[in-house]
Amino acid sequence: MTGNPQPIRAAIKGTAAYLLTAAGLLAVYFPILDNYYISAQFYMFGPALHNGFTLNVFLQPVIEHIGPLWRIFFGLEYLTFGHDPSAYFVVTLCLHWLNVFLTGIFFSALLRNGKLGYWIAFVFGFSASYVYVIHYVFSQMHLFNLTCFLTTSIFYLHFLRRPRPYRLAVVTFCHLFTLFSWETGLELPLLYFLLFLVARNQGGIANPSLKFGMWTLLPLWINTGIYAWYRLHWPGEAAVLGIPGGVHRTPG
């Protein structure tokens, strides 16, 4: 059987490049382990799920705009690793590398240039601004949210290229997941409209009409409304804003 080996070779080269990047990230950030910062917030959120996995986290007061899904993620980390800072450092570094990989996939698909997408991801991975993020255990919140954001964006771009109802359903679910991890997901409908315009100008989507672009964003606006209702009527926010029916509950 004969075939074109170029796509296979390109995939192997791309995989090798990201693996080398992972090794580079480990070499650059590993010295941080000796000074890995665990703040008082670690002891505030860590024990939140110490009695086992529970969905009551969705009913707990909203604190510092932190979504319940990240609190579950962090609580499960605490259940697994306890007070071992090295374990949290490894998880933080893995999340950062995963975001580098997803960044490369996203820009490679958006720009239709795998090499350029990789170099954008490379610059992102070794950006000096991320030294602080890697250094600080509580910054896992930002990394976790970015993972959700990039995953949603990749699926949305894939949907624009080949529209299918189930693909839009996946985008809708991922967007809701992003919202409940942290509040940056509120801006996604607007950002995706801009993404739609970019893809439309490149001629790389199935239906370039503005009507199609607005229709595909409708489920995301519905998600945003659902999350806004949640934030205004569940504990914490309702008590602060004085909304009738809002009950301020305390954990435990």
What does this structure look like?
This protein is mainly alpha-helical and 252 residues long. The protein has one domain (14-241). 67% of the residues lie in helices and 0% in strands. The longest helix has 27 residues, at 85-111. It starts with 5 loop residues before the first helix and ends in an 11-residue tail after the last helix. The relative contact order is 0.11.
Tell the overall outline. Answer: flat
The tally of strands reads 0
Quaternary state of this entry equals single chain
Strand content: under 5%
Order of helices and strands: HHHHHHHHHHH
Number of domains as seen in the coordinates:
1
- Roughly how many Å is the radius of gyration? 20 Å
Topology diagram in text:
Blueprint: H1 6-29, H2 40-45, H3 68-81, H4 85-111, H5 114-125, H6 130-135, H7 140-161, H8 165-179, H9 188-202, H10 210-233, H11 237-241
Helix pairs in contact: 1-4, 1-5, 4-5, 4-7, 7-8, 7-9, 8-10, 9-10
Features:
single chain; about 250 residues; mainly alpha; disordered C terminus; 11 helices
A few lines on this structure:
With 252 residues, the chain is an all-alpha fold.
